[in-house]
Design a protein that fits this description.
This protein has about 300 residues and is α+β, with helices and mostly antiparallel strands. It contains 9 helices and 14 strands.
């Protein structure tokens, strides 16, 4: 059951000892009237492990605290292996997406200038691990519906409702492909970052913005929907989220489908970190939403 520190739960002593093992700012034996420092230690643990930082040891927090240390060591091992796949330097300016916790950072000169929630692929359509270069920003994009989505999702709806395409501003072009016109209901929203790659995965806006409020966000077909897409596009265009924002808004407001090339391509790394080192020697863990850790462990074991 839930441990609420303010209620003087008798299990608080065990919880103190457990948290102190990996929190350099917390001591199991410190004087703590009202358990206020224990509450803050729980919050720090939750923040490190991508849990809702409410200071209450509820079900998800207790599950994380009770993961065996051997499992955590295995997770660290596979993430160290993933680091071996990375270049020695990511450069002075880049985008980093972590598909494991559905987050994105834009880094410039070693500092995070944008942090955003993202929506990534469902387990059956997992977002891949890859790197690419953002070469342009498309405003008011058309959505070229992937053949698998058209075949498995769109066309069955058309058979049931012949007016489906028109009501969703879709059409079939001369090649037989399904496309959706730019607009408020376009699946890509108002902005898409062009980043050619063999997976046909990219960063884009979405009209379903309420989904960003969810804690678990593996909800897409594999592409990456970005909550802070307009600041991200502004930085990609000019290096400055303020200066670039006016350029972006003017282009969107014109209502035309347009791709604005970048003066300097922007590297993007789509990664899968389930163990993340903290600045104070701490480590946080993420759910292995795609089951990749066990497969990599098996590969390392031969």
């Amino acid at each position: 059951g839930t441990i609420r520190p303010a209620l003087q739960d008798p299990r608080a002593l065990a919880l103190r000892a457990r948290l102190a093992l990996e929190d350099p700012s917390f001591s199991a034996n410190q004087d703590d009237p009202g358990n206020g420092q224990l509450t803050e230690a729980i919050r720090r643990y939750q923040a490190r492990n991508n849990l809702r930082p409410d200071g209450i040891a509820g079900h998800e927090t207790l599950v994380a605290l009770n993961v065996p240390v051997s499992t955590r060591i295995s997770t660290i091992i596979v993430n160290m292996e993933r680091w071996r796949w990375m270049p020695r330097s990511l450069g002075t300016r880049y985008i980093a997406v972590n598909a494991a916790d559905a987050s994105l950072r834009v880094v410039q000169d070693g500092k995070t200038v944008i942090a955003s929630r993202v929506i990534v692929g469902r387990p059956r359509s997992a977002t891949p691990i890859f790197d690419a270069m953002v070469t342009g920003v498309t405003v008011n994009p058309f959505w070229n519906v992937p053949p698998s989505i058209a075949r498995n999702e769109i066309l069955p709806k058309v058979r049931r409702n012949p007016g489906y395409l028109a009501s969703h501003h879709m059409f079939i072009d001369g090649s037989g492909a399904v496309r959706q016109s730019p607009g408020a209901d376009n699946a890509l929203g108002y902005v898409k970052l062009e980043m050619p790659n063999r997976f046909n995965s990219y960063l884009h806006d979405t009209p379903a913005r309420k989904l960003f409020a969810r804690d678990e966000r593996p909800l897409s077909h594999g592409c990456i929907r970005v909550e802070q897409i307009q600041p991200l596009a502004a930085v990609a265009l000019t290096g400055d989220p303020v200066a670039g924002f006016d350029v972006l808004q003017a282009a969107i407001g014109a209502g035309n489908n347009k791709t604005i090339p970048l003066d300097k391509p922007l590297p993007v790394f789509v990664l899968y970190w389930t163990a993340i080192a903290g600045q104070e020697g701490t480590v946080g863990f993420r759910s292995d939403v795609y089951g990749r850790d066990q497969r990599l462990l098996a590969a390392l074991a031969g």
